[in-house]
Each structure stands twice: as structure tokens, then as C-alpha cells.
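Q: Give me a protein?
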Amino acid sequence: MTEPGKGQTPETLPLYGRRILVTRAPDQAPALRNALAACGAEPVVVPTIQIVAPASYAELDQAINGLAEIDYLVLTSVNAVEFFFKRLSVLGHDTASLDGVQVVAVGPKSAEALSAHGLQADLVPDDYRAEGLVALLRERVSGKRVLYPRAALARELIPAELAKAGAEVIAPVAYASTPPEDAQDKLSQALAEGLDLLTFTASSTVDNFTNLLDRANLDLARQVPVASIGPLTTATAEKHGFNVVIEPENSTLDDMVEAIKKYFSGTRNAERGTRKEP
């Protein structure tokens, strides 16, 4: 756990003693786990999703080999960034292949992942969701070719709306997801030991969470309040009967953690717990 700030003890941290379930993929869980722990929470990490290679890279490879004809590259997650650049390298290309391509990141985390590959996002929407990305590009893409490497279960919103705007959209599957093999037993144990909050950062984590539980554990889980990263995840959680009490204004982990702090401690306590001496 991160050391308490100056003048603080663990008991004064805004989430002290709160057991909070983290359901993100194993390689992405540490960011949320560490942020919650720094606020005094006891994160209970049980990934309900793991990111895996797609059944075939054929469509993605074909698209990468045709980058010279692409006008926009749309990347809507850190996973999309990593799988795209991995295939770029495997096929013998480098970032020079993207010269002349406008690179669009859905939000700051995707843009940060791009920077690790030596690139800067040309465009980032103000609304870090697919809807915000569509709004940003709608007036720009008529007659353009757009490459959108996507998750296997991604919504059709981006390709459908950009196609309506006159773009030719190429949307190969870049990665897929599956529940971890040990998730069911770990979830049952976590629920039995008690949780103060469930956190969901994607609709797939909610769907998998629900499918992994038997009826008794699902009923138990529905009694625990939920923090959701954004409107789409909230809609999925509510569809499954969960009580969403937290949804940040901006769909980022930092904003989600701030919203969790305010829920448990109130705005005044949350601000006091993070204020630093001038």
C-alpha cells in the first residue's frame, strides 16, 4: 500500500477498511488496485476477463499491409494499441508506416500507450467514449478510409456511424477476451468474506462476472453497491440487476477513484484525504 500522506495515518485515509472488488484483466488490474490501496482500501483483485489473441490475425494483417491507403487509425483501448503494434512489428513494419495517417486515441490512457511506441495521438475526443470519438470524426471522414482495430465483442457503433458519415471503415478483430479459469472460485470466496463495493470498467467484465456466479452468489452480489466506469457499463450492470451508485463524469480510472472516495467519505473528507501541504 502507498504510504499515507504527511500527517495521515491509515485510519484517516478516505477508503480505510473498505473491501473493494477489482474485476479488470490481470495486466490492467494493478492501476486500479494501487489507486484504491493508496486511499486506504483493501482491494480484492479477481479478474473476470483476460485478454487473448483473436481466432485469426488474417484481417488485421491485411489491413496493416495496406496502411499506405489508410487515412485514420482509430484506437479505442490500451489493448487495441498493444495488439496493433505487436502485429505491426511481426509483419516487419515500424511506426514510419503510419506517416500520413491521422492517429485517433479514444482517451488519455490510449494516448499514453501510443507514446510508449514513440507516437503522439493526433486527435483525442473530449468525451472518452465511442460516442465522443464518433462526434469528433463525423465531419472529417467523408471519402476517407478508416482503420479501426477492435475487440471481438466491440459494439458496432463506431464502424456503423462512421460509415454513415461517408467513410470506408475497415474493422478487423485485433484481440478477444475470455474469463480466467479460476475466477469462479475466487469470486465466491470474495463474496463470502464480504465486499463493500464492486467495480466494473467494461461491459464484458459485468457479463462475465454474472455468468461466473451461481444463483445464490449472484443474489449476494446484487446486494453490494457498484461503481461503473461509464454509461455503457452502467447500463449493462443495471440490466443484470446490480445497484450502480457510482459513475464518474469522465470515464477514466482517476475520476472513478475520486467518485468512489466521495461516495464513501463525502467530498469534504475526500479532498482532505488527498490535500498536500503548499
About this structure: The longest strand covers residues 173-178. Residues 253-274 form the longest helix (22 residues). Residues 267-278 have pLDDT under 50 and may be disordered. The CA atoms of residues 95 and 123 lie 17 Å apart.
